[in-house]
Amino acid sequence: MKRFICIFLLLILAFSFVSCSSETDEHGEVSYEYARNFLVLDQDWNTVTLSQFIGKPIVINFWASWCPPCKAELPDFEKAYKEYGDVVFLMVNLTDGSRETVDTAKDFISRNGYTFPVYFDTEFSASYAYSLSSIPVTCFIDEEGNLVTSRVGMIDYDTLVDGIKKITE
Asked: Which domains does the chain have, with CATH numbers?
């Protein structure tokens, strides 16, 4: 029983790190947590920050090619990427240099024909900023830079579209 309680508390703690916090102010307006900035590399080794994209709705997906749930949801991200051209997709690969390298991630993307932009978190800036304890994780950020909602675990196309609607409507 003690073990169950410890695991349950750890799961709650892990979820609280990734979930967005929203509050209702005295006027009934919902306020969201401002998205935490991070630094990643694009496929040409250029430095990219989340803050560069503020002003447009943003979907961030944290993934790795060795992660079965990540691989399973990527076709839905590709479909949404092609359908929602006004939304920025930041597909952040957790590139630790051993289990996942830039080369293995690029090879995986190429073999599967994905066209969404992939960014490499080689210095763990993004994973630390969002206190990741598992993947996949998807965050939805509105054009003002507010983290509107996030999801831990694999999501399907309908859930992805629901998140996109929350940041575009």
From this structure: 2-168 (3.40.30.10)
